[in-house]
């Protein structure tokens, strides 16, 4: 039986609980906070369209890498020390975000901010479970998950409103006093805790896996700009990715100890849930990354309105997740997984009907359905993953699920960016070719003045971009469709005890 912290016994447990939940929300909201503010950020930093994905993927990838080593860091240097250093670096990243004058500076600041956020989520959950009695652990875990998802979902709405009325730098300023409150609460109330004998950590496995993932991420992010394998840089990134994954696989097969234990991959439900979690991440953030630019740049919605139009998706996600989590354990969770996937697929199918002539209703309706589907899928996925897993492996299994979702989001953003620009160019050529019955470019140029020709080109470009965005929603729809049959291979839930 666990006991609460001495400080918690004196009433500080409430403050620690609020601080830990606030840290979880702050870590998550900063993933999507720049989403609706992208036009202001691009204009201020002269950021090219193909660099927009770095705003999200740099933060997420850095967070995933550091999250993997959080347990070892806390055991080696102390939980409180790691937590406070992370908060201090997070605040430094926020300030560097506001001071950036170029896109490179901004991305580097986002990398620092993301790396510092990595330990905040898992350590916040550990603190919550320690300062509260075991009877509340289930409820606290649910609250922690809700805070994380609410942060991602509410980020565009908050960021859009702040950037429209207070400038884009305000979206980072607002997190500074929150960080200060969390730092002060932990400094005064949290007792230090570290492992008596720190466990060895598989740094070689983490480094090789990270090299493979980062190389793949850079390959996808940079290939469109550098014309794929015509560039030496792309060859270097591809080689680094292949080498990293090769060394990691060999390392896993030839050693007994590595940062992802082989016991995890012997559980069928966890393996299948990890694949589904990757697809969930592939849909979750790329949908936001596509919707806001489409509304702002192609349909000319104000930034604050764009942010507000994403709010119903987040409300539906959190509400449905809360309701699904309260369903009795005797009910088969696989029905909720299939229902959630069906809603997500149907919502993305609705997005295929987007057009420049639509109003706000199709966006809100599709967002509500997709949010509801994700809210059903996420808690059911957790039950599937841990229903048959050895309790000793659950902390590592939880980390594996989180990593798969985060890397799914980074890869998803990169993939939709690549296809978006390819499809935009292809559609522009196809539409421009058919502007006259004779398909004569010389005839058009000779009969339209330069301003009119420029306006015509802008209209064709806009139409091409709208078609390209819709094509990306189709990719996200098929990503969820492909993994849907895996639900049929999940083991039946154990009888409730």
Helix/strand layout:
Blueprint: H1 6-32, H2 38-45, H3 52-68, H4 70-77, H5 79-99, H6 103-117, H7 120-131, H8 137-166, H9 170-173, H10 175-189, H11 203-226, H12 232-254, H13 268-298, H14 303-309, H15 311-325, H16 333-351, H17 361-386, H18 394-433, H19 441-447, H20 450-483
Helix pairs in contact: 1-7, 1-8, 1-10, 3-6, 3-11, 3-18, 4-5, 5-6, 5-10, 7-8, 8-14, 8-15, 11-12, 11-18, 13-17, 13-18, 13-20, 15-17, 16-17, 16-20, 18-20
Q: Radius of gyration, rounded? A: 24 Å
Quaternary state reads single chain
State the CATH topology of the largest domain. Growth Hormone, Chain: A
How many domain units?
Answer: 3
SS-based structural class? mainly alpha
- The helix/strand order is HHHHHHHHHHHHHHHHHHHH
CATH 2nd-level architecture of the largest domain: Up-down Bundle
CATH class of the largest domain: Mainly Alpha
What does this structure look like?
It contains 20 helices and no strands. By secondary structure, the chain is mostly helical. The protein starts with 5 loop residues before the first helix and ends in a 14-residue tail after the last helix. Helix 3 runs antiparallel to helix 18, helix 15 packs parallel to helix 17 (361-386) and helix 16 runs antiparallel to helix 17. Helix content is 77%, strand content 0%. It has helices at 6-32, 38-45, 52-68, 70-77, 79-99, 103-117, 120-131, 137-166, 170-173, 175-189, 203-226, 232-254, 268-298, 303-309, 311-325, 333-351, 361-386, 394-433, 441-447, 450-483. Residues 1-10 and 437-446 have low confidence and may be disordered. The protein folds into three domains: 1-199, Up-down Bundle (Growth Hormone, Chain: A); 202-258; 260-497, MFS general substrate transporter like domains (Growth Hormone, Chain: A). The chain crosses the membrane at residues 52-74, 81-101, 107-129, 141-162, 168-189, 201-220, 226-249, 270-290, 310-329, 336-355, 367-387, 399-421, 465-490.
């Amino acid at each position: 039986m666990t006991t609460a912290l001495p400080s918690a016994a004196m009433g500080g447990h409430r403050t620690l609980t609020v601080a830990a939940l606030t840290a979880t929300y702050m870590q998550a909201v900063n993933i999507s906070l720049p989403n609706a503010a992208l036009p202001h950020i691009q204009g201020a930093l002269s950021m090219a369209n193909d660099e927009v994905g770095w705003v999200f993927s740099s933060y997420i990838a850095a967070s995933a890498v550091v999250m993997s080593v959080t347990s070892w860091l806390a055991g080696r240097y102390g939980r409180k020390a790691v937590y406070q250093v992370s908060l201090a670096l997070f605040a430094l990243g926020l300030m560097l975000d506001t001071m950036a004058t170029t896109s490179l500076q901004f991305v580097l600041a986002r990398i620092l901010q993301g790396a510092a956020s990595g330990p905040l989520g898992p350590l916040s959950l550990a603190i919550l479970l320690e300062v509260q009695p075991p009877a509340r652990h289930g409820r606290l875990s649910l609250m922690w998950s809700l805070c994380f998802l609410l942060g991602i979902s509410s980020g565009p709405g908050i960021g859009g409103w702040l950037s429209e009325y207070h400038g884009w730098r305000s979206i980072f300023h607002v997190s500074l006093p929150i960080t200060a409150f969390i730092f002060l609460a932990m400094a005064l109330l949290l007792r230090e805790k570290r492992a008596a004998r720190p466990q060895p950590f598989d740094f070689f496995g983490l480094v090789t896996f990270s090299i493979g993932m980062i190389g793949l991420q850079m390959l996808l992010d940079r290939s469109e700009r550098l014309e794929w394998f015509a560039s030496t840089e792309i060859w270097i990134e591809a080689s680094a990715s292949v080498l990293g994954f090769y060394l990691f696989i060999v390392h896993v097969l030839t050693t007994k100890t590595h940062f992802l234990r082989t016991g995890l991959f012997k559980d069928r439900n966890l393996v299948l849930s990890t694949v589904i979690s990757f697809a969930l991440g592939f849909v979750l953030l790329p949908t936001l990354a596509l919707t806001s630019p489409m509304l702002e740049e192609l349909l000319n919605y104000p930034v604050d309105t764009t942010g507000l139009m994403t709010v119903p998706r987040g409300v539906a996600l959190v509400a449905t997740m809360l309701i699904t989590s309260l369903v009795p354990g005797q009910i088969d969770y696989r029905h909720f997984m299939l229902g959630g996937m069906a809603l997500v697929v149907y919502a993305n199918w609705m997005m295929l009907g987007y057009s420049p002539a639509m109003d706000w209703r199709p966006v809100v309706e599709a967002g509500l359905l997709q949010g509801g589907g994700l809210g059903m899928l996420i808690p059911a996925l957790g039950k599937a993953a841990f229903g048959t897993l050895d309790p000793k492996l659950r902390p590592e299994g939880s980390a594996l699920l989180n990593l798969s979702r985060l890397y799914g989001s980074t890869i998803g953003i990169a993939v939709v960016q690549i296809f978006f620009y390819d499809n935009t160019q292809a559609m522009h050529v196809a539409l421009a070719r058919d502007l006259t019955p004779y398909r004569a470019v010389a005839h058009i140029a000779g009969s339209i003045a330069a301003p009119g020709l420029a306006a015509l080109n802008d209209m064709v470009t806009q139409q091409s971009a709208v078609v390209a965005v819709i094509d990306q929603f189709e990719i996200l729809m098929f990503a969820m469709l492909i993994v849907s049959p895996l639900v049929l291979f999940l083991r039946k839930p154990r009888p409730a005890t």
